[in-house]
């Protein structure tokens, strides 16, 4: 593994994807254990897409299955597509199939975005879920870890190129449309201020088709409107990039 560090940003490049998932799972579990030791709960935001699937599968198996602090873990989603939970395109459905059905996580700790209702309604309802979890009159909790992916077009979560999103603390969730890779276009996403208040963010990026975009994002070339992943900059948090050799080829 090659490692480069700037303040608050770590870029980890792995020779094999097996090593990447192993390291990401181990680091994630360590964060969970520290969060539970410090605050008695671990607030984790899951990413959709395909890249995190092997990570979720790894967490669902031993040794994590038995040793992970599932009882104190609360799961949220960074974005959801407007499809029912049992649709093959549902981000919740993906997590259910690869993690939730095997991991002993209490039902009441699973906070999904309702893809089966109109996106504007789901966004409003999810903002209330976040507010309730935050308590103390806050609009959302400070997440311990947010998992994110990167689209070849520069999107992350459902923050798509060309759209402006609130950058000051205001709205926690948005209903948006964004077209990518024949996936559902109507979506709900958390907003940059929510992601940027997190304690930790892991981006998981793989594949040669993302190499150019990844280079632009990491080298801060092109505008954040063109590359929404550039908007992820938690002032009081860390960002770790888990990247395979193919995605890193233009760095
Ligand atoms: C979604 C995601 C999205 C994803 C990227 C990368 O709902 O599609 O949350 O932001 O992370 O599109 O997707 P892949 O991991 O499949 O390349």
Largest sheet properties: 7 strands, mixed
Number of helices: 7
Radius of gyration: 17 Å
Secondary-structure element sequence? EEHEHHEEHHEEEHEHE
- The rounded distance between the terminal residues' Cα atoms is 15 Å
Overall pLDDT level = 95
CATH architecture: 3-Layer(aba) Sandwich
Low-confidence stretches: none
Proportion of residues in helical segments = 25-40%
Strands of the widest sheet, in order across it, are: 1-2-10-9-6-3-4
> How many β strands by DSSP?
10
Furnish the topology, listing elements before pairings.
Elements: E1 2-6, E2 9-14, H1 17-39, E3 42-46, H2 53-60, H3 64-67, E4 73-77, E5 79-81, H4 91-100, H5 119-134, E6 145-149, E7 173-177, E8 186-190, H6 192-196, E9 200-205, H7 211-218, E10 238-244
Parallel strand pairs: 2-10, 3-4, 3-6, 6-9, 9-10
Antiparallel strand pairs: 1-2, 5-8, 7-8
Helix pairs in contact: 1-2, 2-4
The protein binds 6-phosphogluconic acid.
Residues 47-51, 78-79, 81, 91, 149, 151, 155-157, 180, 183 line the site of 6-phosphogluconic acid.
Task: Tell me what you see in this structure.
With 251 residues, the chain is α/β, with parallel strands linked by helices. It has one domain (2-244): Rossmann fold. Helices cover 29% and strands 21% of the residues. It is built from seven helices and ten strands. A seven-stranded mixed sheet has the order 1-2-10-9-6-3-4, with helices on one face. It has a three-stranded antiparallel sheet with strand order 5-8-7. Strand 7 (173-177) and strand 8 (186-190) form a beta hairpin. The protein is globular and about 45 Å long. 45% of the residues are buried. The model has no long low-confidence stretch (mean pLDDT 95). The site of 6-phosphogluconic acid (6PG) has 16 residues, from strand 5.
């Amino acid at each position: 593994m090659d490692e480069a560090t700037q303040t608050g940003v770590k870029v980890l490049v792995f020779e094999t994807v097996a090593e990447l998932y192993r390291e990401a799972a181990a680091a994630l579990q360590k964060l969970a254990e520290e969060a539970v030791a410090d605050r008695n709960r671990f607030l984790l935001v899951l990413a959709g897409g395909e890249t995190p699937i092997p990570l979720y599968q790894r967490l669902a198996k031993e040794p994590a299955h038995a040793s992970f602090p599932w009882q104190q873990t609360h799961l949220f989603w960074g974005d959801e597509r407007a499809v029912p939970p049992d649709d093959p395109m549902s981000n919740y459905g993906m997590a259910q199939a690869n993690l939730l059905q095997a991991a002993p996580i209490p039902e009441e700790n699973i906070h999904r975005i309702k893809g089966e209702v109109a996106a504007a309604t789901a966004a409003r309802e999810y903002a209330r879920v976040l507010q309730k979890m935050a308590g103390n009159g806050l609009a959302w909790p400070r997440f311990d870890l947010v998992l994110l992916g990167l689209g070849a077009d520069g999107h992350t979560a459902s923050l798509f190129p060309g759209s402006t999103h609130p950058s000051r603390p205001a709205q926690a969730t948005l209903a948006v449309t964004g077209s990518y890779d024949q996936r559902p276009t109507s979506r709900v996403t958390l907003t940059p201020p929510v992601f940027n208040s997190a304690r930790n963010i892991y981006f998981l990026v793989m594949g040669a088709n993302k190499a150019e975009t990844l280079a632009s994002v990491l080298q801060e070339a092109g505008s954040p409107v063109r590359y929404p992943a550039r908007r992820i900059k938690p002032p009081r948090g860390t960002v770790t990039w888990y990247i395979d050799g193919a995605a890193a080829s233009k760095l």
